[in-house]
Amino acid sequence: MTPRLDRWTVDLRQGRVRTRTLDDRPQEFPRVDEVLVSRRYRYGYSAAAAEMSPAYQAVDGTPPDGAFADAPLKHDLLRGTSEVHRLPGGAAASEAVFVPSDPCGGRVAEDDGYAVAYVHDPDRGASDLVILAAQDFTGGPVARIHLPGRAPPGFHGSWIPDA
Fold it and tell me: How much is the pTM?
C-alpha cells in the first residue's frame, strides 16, 4: 500500500475512529509546527516521493500527472489545497520541518516561519539543507547550505533552539 495523507479523528465519547483522505499522492512523514502537535492546526508539511509513484503509473509507465516527483509539500488543511516546491530533476527531498520565525511565539500567522528540508543534489553527489519561506513555499529558497556529503534518505530530525 502506498502511503498517502490521511486524517484520523478519534471520538473518545463514541469509541470511534473516522479516517479521511486529505491527499492521495504518494507521500510520507507528515509534520506540523511542533508547538501545535495535538492542537488545532491549519498547515502541514510532507514529502512526496517519486519512488512510490510506480503504484500509480499508467500501463505505458507514465505518471498520471506532474505532481509525482520528489518534492516537499505544504498542505492548507483549512482550504483543502496544497503547494509543491518543485525541485530539479533527480533531486530527492526529505520531509520539511517547520521552524517558526520567532521561537518565542511572537508570530502573526501560523505559517510565519521556514520549512527546512534536506535535498539531495545529484549533480554534486551531496545534499543541501534547503530553507524555504513557509509563506512563499513555491518560491526560491531563502538559503541553501551545501553539505559535504549526502544525507541518507532515512535521516530525519527536528530543529530546536540552542538551550
Answer: 0.81
